[in-house]
Amino acid sequence: MTQLPLRAQLASALGRSAATLSRMTGRGDGSVIGGRVGLLLEPDLLRKLAHDRKLALVSATNGKTTTTRLITSALLELGEVATNAFGANMPAGHVSALSQHKGAPIGVLEVDEKYLPEVLDTTGAGVVCLMNLSRDQMDRAGEIWQLAQKWRRALSGRPTHVIANCDDPLVTWGASTAAKVTWVSGGQRWKEDSWCCPECGGPLDRKDTFWACRECTFHRPEPQWALDDEVAVDPRGQRWMLDIQLPGQANRSNAVMALAVADAFGLPVERALPRLREVTSVAGRYTTVERDGRHARLLLSKNPAGWLEAFDVADPQLPIILSVNAQGPDGRDTSWLWDVDYRILRGRPVFVTGERRLDLALRLDAADVSFLLCGTFTEALAMQPPGRVDVIANYTAFQQIRSEFGRAV
Ligand SMILES: [Zn+2]
Q1: Residues that bind Zn(2+), according to the entry (predicted)?
Q2: DSSP state of 196
Q3: Are strands 204-207 and 81-83 parallel, antiparallel or unpaired?
Q4: Is 129 part of any known ligand binding site?
Q5: CA 366 to chain centre
Q6: Are strands 231-233 and 225-228 parallel, antiparallel or unpaired?
Q7: Which sign, positive or negative, has the C-alpha torsion 394, 68, 271, 234?
Q8: How far is the CA of 218 from the centre of ligand 1 (A)?
Q9: Rounded to whole angstroms, how far apart are CA atoms 160 and 132?
Q10: Known catalytic residue at 229
């Protein structure tokens, strides 16, 4: 790699010092503050740090942290990889990730959906991976159609190789201005945000994973890669049993996307797949915390689509604790709870906690789901018989449980 200009070197070094200080004083992992300091001193730092590297940007409403991790794990086969492993997915986090691995020839960056055009423009990344696009919490949602429109403009006229989930109509539309697209049939669990054609507004007809607009020519492209239950099918039609440790269909979909991205970097499936199998948890997700013989597995769910994925992973034989907050990162408005179909929980032992437990209780009551209301998560856990229990929590509720119970066991 070529040397960074002096000013960029200084900005990068000072950013790293700020990050270290932040960690030492217990103010977090430091990846955001370090990047901010760096960008303050050298606004062009991200472009300079990205220069000369092979970069993949990963964006979606759900699963981007996990997919970033899977891709990183695979590409370690090829050498050192710089990545924002802690989900700091805006430019300050990217600066921090690239500063910490200055010699890494490869970078895999999780990018917030709204920042994708800016980060693509700044870094000139060669590969972009797009998985799904659905509404996030109500008060941060914005217009996802407008977001896809911005993706289209950002990708148009670039040599970027896009890997995109063609089962999601909005992602397909957002990706289809790119010069080179590899389509992956990764499935789509949440369909409520894509009944209308993004091109003309007409109704979309669906049959299994296929979809087509009734009023214009927009339709699902033919995929090169596909997920067939537990098997990944590559462009030559060869079938690979995924057999990964991360649970659920959504993670198998993330794994197929990761294999397609690895392939774009020239890494064949037989070398990438064993690396994906090494990933057991991502930023605390799917890990288990233990107290007094109760083993609680933590599932993070930040939005309506995320709840459906968590229901898919949760064991129907086990009791389940649900915890909902409404702090800034969760979205202050909990009315999105009404978009989720909770009827799947009927007949199971359900325990409800979190700062907004009454909002969730009302929603469950309307869906005829019986539950017990608990003042705190600790109380909910103490009510369980010894053994396993699943926990679904939204963002700050999840973080509270993690900080109270420490890391994984
Ligand atoms: Zn149409």
Answers
A1: 197, 200, 213, 216
A2: B
A3: unpaired
A4: no
A5: 30
A6: antiparallel
A7: positive
A8: 5
A9: 19
A10: no
Distance separating alpha carbons of residues 346 and 330, to the nearest angstrom = 25
**Active-site pick, 333, 339, 365, 390:** 333
| pLDDT more than 90, % of the chain | 70
Q: How far is the CA of 204 from the centre of ligand 1 (A)?
A: 7
| Structure tokens given for 372 | 């017990």
The answer to whether 166 is annotated as binding is no
Q: Which ranges of 278-389 would DSSP assign to H, the alpha helix?
A: 304-313, 357-366, 377-382
CB atoms within 10 A of CB 378: 14
Angle 64-235-199 from CA coordinates, rounded to 5°: 60
pLDDT in tens, 253-265: 999 999 999 999 9
User: How many angstroms separate the CA atoms of 181 and 17, rounded?
Assistant: 40
Q: What Rg value do the Cα atoms of the chain yield, rounded?
A: 21
| 72/56 Cα distance (integer angstroms) | 10
CB count, 10 Å around CB of 25? 9
213 labeled part of a ligand binding site = yes
Contact 185, 209 (CB under 8 A): yes
List the structure tokens of 220. Answer: 């699902």
CA of 305 to the centre of ligand 1 (A): 24
* Cα–Cα distance, 341 to 353 (Å, whole number): 18
Q: Which residues pair with 227 in a beta bridge?
A: 232
The CA–CA distances, whole Å, from 320 to 147, 277, 315, 317 equal 35, 27, 9, 9
Nearest CA to 336 out of 134, 145, 87 is that of 134
Q: How many A from CA of 202 to the centre of ligand 1?
A: 5
C-alpha to C-alpha distance for 19 and 28, rounded to whole angstroms: 9
Q: Which two tokens stand for residue 174?
A: 């957002």
188 or 26, higher pLDDT: 188
Closest CA to 372 of 345, 395, 399, 396: 345
138: pLDDT strictly greater than 60? no
- What is the edge-to-edge ordering of all strands in the sheet holding 231-233? 81-83, 106-110, 54-59, 127-130, 161-165, 180-185, 225-228, 231-233, 239-241
Q: Tell me the pLDDT tens digit for each residue of 290-317.
A: 999 999 999 999 888 899 989 989 999 9
Q: How far is the C-alpha of 407 from the C-alpha of 409, rounded, in Å?
A: 7
